[in-house]
Amino acid sequence: MQGQGRPSPGGAPSPSFCIPADGVHCRGCRWDPDNGICTRPDCSALFTPPAVREQQRSWPHDEQPQLVIAAGPERSGSTFLYNALRLLWQHARKPCDAYYLKCITDAALDERGAGQPGAPHVLVKTHAWSEHWDVNRAAHIFVTHRDLAQVLASYRRLGWAWELPDGYVRDHLIWQRHAELDLAFEDIAARPLWVLKQLAGRLGLQEVDCAAVLRDLDSLPVPQHWVDPVTQLWPAHISPVFREQRAAAEAAAKAAAAAQVPSIEAAGAAAPSGGSGGGKLSAAEVEQLRKQFPEFYRLYPQYLQPSLT
């Protein structure tokens, strides 16, 4: 059963998005109590857990709050990126409001206090490029990338699509031109601690214990029936191959008895040689992707190597 137009506490005007931890609901709210979300398509709620929301009230605000964009395309490690950034701020004990926005607009950012003095940092997860905002507002833009053959195999495993849409690559290439850091899916799988340190350094959070953040990332529960609105994880979100790659990376590190995070090469040597969950594409399908998206493969020529497709 869904609630309709639930009022905000104290009779205050309803905002354009829900803040469930504060008991605040948007104008025209269509609240789904079973899944704990508002089903109004343009709500884009703030889903900070209540306990964290309460803790954040006592954390000091930075003088210049940052707008951080996690703009990786689907099935490329973008949800890892989003949760890594979210948890880095949390471990640093700095208030950060994290959202998923299907389309970034200046109006949506203004409503969320992005960059306003005294406001929390704002983290936005998104996929599609938008022409409806000033990109210079972002203090940091981070993207992820992955071999399109593996992306398409992952799409098929999840039953999302049989072909990769042109917009997937078009939007990614625009975001990539604006990004200060472009992370490979292979790095996220094989050496996530290195990834976290790269992100922490760029956010000015070098004091954060990235190993502790990684433990929290690894312990995030994968929902069974519906998307987790806090983590943006879906059922079957994490593929068996990703888990195998992570396990292989850890095994490579232990075998070497090294304190350093293993290299991609070491992890790759130990990892199983399969496609992404749904099996490898045929050689003809891989070649078709290379012909369809030549600019992507010029940007990431490493994916032209047979061993990676």
Automatic annotation (TrEMBL):
Which Gene3D superfamilies has this protein been placed in? P-loop containing nucleotide triphosphate hydrolases
Instruction: Say which domain of life the source belongs to.
Output: Eukaryota
- This one is known as Sulfotransferase
